[in-house]
Amino acid sequence: MSGAVSPQTDAILNFDFTVTDDADTTSGNDALPTLITNIVIPQGTGNDVANWTQAIIGAQLSDGTNTITGTVAASTLTFASIPTGAGALGEILDGGTKTYSLKIWLKTALGGCFANDNRWFKLGI
Q: Nearest 10 degrees: CA dihedral of 62, 67, 68, 69?
């Protein structure tokens, strides 16, 4: 990449993950959706970039309809205050599933890291 970085055009899909509301199968039908208000994605084992702020300029989490921008810190990507209303990013319908996609975009000058360095992620909800 060169020049200005735009999240819409330069975002890199890192991974997808699916969350399931399985309350109907494990503890009876509660008839309630699962509400996710906060997702933190920390560095995983094998990560070569000590400080993500030197390489990652931004992060987005999407369910295909809704998108939220996260906060990049030295060792985490945080998506806080996720909307949970009807049809919102943080709502998983009763007995349903939702697939999320994590995209990041990198700085044009990778301070303190190299192009071949590994960026490992792990998921914590």
A: 80
Cα–Cα distance measured from residue 5 to residue 35, given in angstroms and rounded to the nearest whole number: 32
Determine the Cα–Cα distance for residues 22 and 118; give it in Å rounded to an integer: 34
> pLDDT for 66-83, tens place per residue?
999 999 999 999 999 999
- Look at the block and give the residue holding tokens 């509660």: 30
Task: Give yes or no for a contact between 14 and 120, defined as CB atoms under 8 angstroms apart.
Answer: no
Confidence of residue 14 (pLDDT cuts 50, 70, 90): confident
Helix (H, G, I), strand (E, B) or coil at 54: helix
Cα–Cα separations (whole angstroms), residue 1 to 72, 75, 115, 118: 19, 23, 11, 18
How far is the C-alpha of 13 from the C-alpha of 7, rounded, in Å? 11
Sign of CA dihedral 36, 61, 97, 25: negative
Helix (H) or strand (E) holding 10: helix 7-10
